[in-house]
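Here is one chain, start to finish.
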Amino acid sequence: MASAAIRQQCNRGDQLVVAAQMGFSRMIGIELDARYAMEAARRVPKAAIWTGDTNELLPSLLASIHEAVFIVLDAHYCKLDPPIAKSRFPLWGELGLLRTRPYADIVVVDDVHTFGKVRDDLRYASDPEWETVTETSISLFLGAPGETIGDGYVVWRTARQ
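Its structure:
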């Protein structure tokens, strides 16, 4: 089992609490909103909480981890008060980083209920976004089978030499 758990858009840390209860030795949260990041850090003191955009933070974070990770990706915008600027749809870039790793990572893409749907309320520009995301497109992109569990699509990657 992976010893590191990463939660992209950790919000207030609910899933990091679960990761701590499951015995992960290293937990990392990434959150855009500084207030949510502070709440997550308070709730899970042994988790490292990074504040910022995964487009900017995830490459260096993954480069620093030389073991399999359990990572939950939540590639949509939440309504924040005050609102933050939207950025390009991050999911395919995040999955691209994971696709190049040689480790047997476990990747969860959250919000299956939005897969394949046009989400103009979340759209950054006119580029295709959620409508390109399906269980099949994720598995093909990562080169590994997956399974829908609840509202998450879970892909178990195999280690590469």
